[in-house]
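FIELD: query
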Amino acid sequence: MEDEPLADAYDAGLRSTAPPVDAATGGALRFLAASISARSVVEIGTGCGSSGIWLLRGMTPDGILTTVDTNAEYQEYARSAFARAGFGAGRARLIRGAALDVLPRLTDGGYDLVLVDADTVSYPLYLEEARRLLRPGGMVVFNGAMAGSSEPDGPLRVPDPRETAVREVIGRLRAEEASIPLFMPVGEGLLAAIL
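FIELD: result
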């Protein structure tokens, strides 16, 4: 871990039901945010704040992270982790609620990057929300793109709904000429796409 606030957020995440991103995934998130000079980012799934710290470190100095989660305890921990990492109260907007209820209230075309790190089964729905939220040329990133079973396909295998959802998102992104997808084999797998 890079430092104490990040290490604390990581440790808290390991003790929670919202596992933190590992250092390689965090580094990739920081790089992606920096590569597009992200000023406005939406994170679906706050957890205990480790991914938010990585994103904030890659964003422009005046950038604002909007992060959504249903768990108030996680968000309070993340708020504290952001402050300990040196990010003032104005740098992160934490919204408690179900993402599919909160996202429709956010500004169309107002964001540079959307990170999806929540209920994998809902990834196709989050892709549609990201399309609406992102400015032209914005980036959507899905964590957990290697979700699902490692068993080979076969007539007796029951498909894992998480795997089915990830495959659907990958299929949609590949089918669109305008999107530029990239799979990164770090952590649980990152799937990024410029839309």
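FIELD: remark
The mean pLDDT is 92.
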